[in-house]
Amino acid sequence: MKSLTFAIAAALLTVPASAQTIGGYDGFAFVDAVKQKTGDKVMELIRKNGPGIVNAKDASGNTALIVAITDRNEDYTAFLLNQGADPNLGGKGGDTPLIAAARVGYGDAAEWLLGQGAKVDGTNRMGETALIVAVQQRQPALVRLLLAAGANPDKTDNAAGLSARDYATRDTRSRDILQAIEAKKPKAAAASR
């Protein structure tokens, strides 16, 4: 029993404090239940811990919402957003749910997240925005959606100092993405009109 208690305590030390305060061990179990798609366990943990548990993180730092989006699970994504999951709460690497949706090309989730107040130009630890990731993943529909929502194609990342416009210019395989970005004038040019 002592070794199990020690293992749980050690696992908690590797998780951000914010995740530890949202359900503790039950928070890990909640995210795992979403991963395993065990609806009964998800509902049991919400009843036991209250709605705040929907923002718990697993040991890797991902939220249940990010897990559902990464799995392209429409039911759990919609359910978690309806239960109050934070559309801006970052996970592993600082990826926001919107960035996670861009990584897997999950347009419906991106629409829902934007409707729930997701920051269109929110960044991860590398300074990437959802638009930069959508360009890198060659997701033209997502690029258009994010641009329509006001994403800044000229915001640069920290990794290479490049913007979505820069990445689109360098990638000759997706001219439709570059065309969508070129239709959106740089902010400096638009401001001078």
Description:
The protein has 193 residues and is mainly α. It has two domains: 1-93, Serine Threonine Protein Phosphatase 5, Tetratricopeptide repeat (Alpha Horseshoe); 120-193, Ankyrin repeat-containing domain (Serine Threonine Protein Phosphatase 5, Tetratricopeptide repeat). Helices cover 57% and strands 0% of the residues. It contains 13 helices and no strands. The chain has helices at residues 2-13, 17-21, 24-36, 39-49, 64-70, 74-82, 97-104, 107-115, 130-136, 140-148, 164-170, 175-182, 187-191. α7 (97-104) runs parallel beside α9. Mean pLDDT is 87; it is low at 1-21 and 189-193.
Which helices and strands, and how do they pair?
Layout: H1 2-13, H2 17-21, H3 24-36, H4 39-49, H5 64-70, H6 74-82, H7 97-104, H8 107-115, H9 130-136, H10 140-148, H11 164-170, H12 175-182, H13 187-191
Helix pairs in contact: 3-4, 5-6, 5-7, 6-8, 7-8, 7-9, 9-10, 9-11, 10-12, 11-12
- What's the CATH class label of the largest domain? Mainly Alpha
Number of helices: 13
Strand content: under 5%
Number of domains: 2
Query: Terminal Cα separation, in Å?
Result: 70 Å
User: How confident overall, as mean pLDDT?
Assistant: 87
* Number of E strands: 0
Give the overall shape.
elongated
- Percent of residues in helices comes to 55-70%
Radius of gyration: 19 Å
CATH architecture assignment name of the largest domain: Alpha Horseshoe
Helix and strand sequence = HHHHHHHHHHHHH
Query: Helix/strand/pairing class, anyone?
Result: mainly alpha
Low-confidence stretches: 1-21, 189-193
Largest sheet: none
Q: Within the CATH hierarchy, at the fold level, what is the topology of the largest domain?
A: Serine Threonine Protein Phosphatase 5, Tetratricopeptide repeat
